[in-house]
Design brief:
Length: about 300
């Protein structure tokens, strides 16, 4: 039984869920997303969100309200006659009146194993914290911050070679399938909800650029997880010692390596860098103002070998 839905989402992460819901026969009456922002080469052209672009191609009406707290916004939302709303990284708080409007409720796809990593940056925080696994969960929304009752979940192992964008892409696809199954269960009256545990609650604070600098005094695995958790944005960075211009480099991908030395020391001609314990080898990086590149290409322009240093 297809449902009449309102879809609410904004970034790339949200798009697979929208597409899968439509592909499985659900009627998406309207798409809510954030308003276009200036972008393009000169930063002057308004850029629609990825969700808006996908909705336009599907021929679905798109709304970009600045607030959902007015009576006008509530009346407009109700007018679509949706049985349920699906919310995936929308980026705007839904007031109680909106949550109560669909007959079957509002359901959010969250990229963590709740109650761990409630909040804005669960993918980044899971990697940076060294978590062994992450996942996606469908929950029925309430007015709290990711505190609603959970309906369904899928788990995914986090490996040391997985960056934030790698995990993002895998969870996005996994979540789309999960939400389709959840809406099928909801349509037939078989979606079961379970309250979240009060134990193990953590909050995934928004990433602050101030925390992106690499601390080479930490153990190698901690450094690797810090780098991968911030890749590609905002990008964990360090500076080339004894270089006056374009000294900052973002490290985007690395691997654990053998070796030891003073933290930040370059140990060989393959960009192996000493950490507080052990070492990492840089695989991909980006110099300030330049395109991202493989370590071998970087070394052809910057001969950084034994005796060099990252600070």
């Amino acid at each position: 039984m297809p449902l009449r839905l309102i879809f609410m989402g904004t970034p790339d992460f949200s798009v697979p869920t929208l597409l899968e819901l439509v592909a499985h026969g659900h009627e998406v009456a309207a798409v809510y997303t954030r308003a276009p922002k200036p972008g393009g080469r000169r930063g002057l052209q308004l850029q629609p969100t990825p969700v808006e672009e996908a909705a336009r191609k599907l021929g679905v009406p798109v709304l970009t309200p600045k607030t959902l707290k007015t009576q006008e916004a509530l009346d407009e939302f109700r007018a679509f006659g949706a049985e349920a709303a699906v919310v995936v990284a929308y980026g705007m708080i839904l007031p109680q009146a909106i949550l109560d409007a669909p007959r079957l409720g509002c359901y959010n796809l969250h990229a963590s194993l709740l109650p761990r990593w409630r909040g804005a940056a669960p993918i980044n925080r899971a990697i940076m914290a060294g978590d062994a696994e992450s996942g996606v969960m469908v929950m029925k929304m309430d007015v709290g911050l990711d505190t609603g009752d959970v309906a369904m979940a899928e788990r995914l192992a986090i490996t040391d070679n997985m960056t934030a964008v790698d995990l993002h892409d895998r969870l996005s696809r996994l979540g789309a399938d999960l939400m389709v199954r959840a809406m099928a269960a909801l349509a037939r009256g078989g979606l079961q909800l379970k309250k979240q545990s009060e134990d193990g609650v953590t909050y995934a604070a928004k990433i602050d650029k101030a925390e992106a600098r690499i601390d080479w005094s930490k153990p190698a695995r901690d450094v690797l997880r810090h780098i991968h958790g911030l890749s590609p944005f905002p990008g964990a960075w360090s500076e080339l010692a004894d270089v006056s211009e374009n000294a900052r480099v973002k490290i985007l991908r690395c691997e654990l390596a053998k070796g030891s030395g003073a933290p930040g020391d370059v140990l060989d001609d393959q960009l192996t860098i000493a950490c507080g314990e052990g070492a990492i080898r840089i695989i991909e990086l980006q110099r300030e103002g330049k395109a991202r590149m493989q370590a071998a290409d970087f070394l052809r322009g910057v001969p950084l070998g034994i005796g060099g240093r990252l600070t």
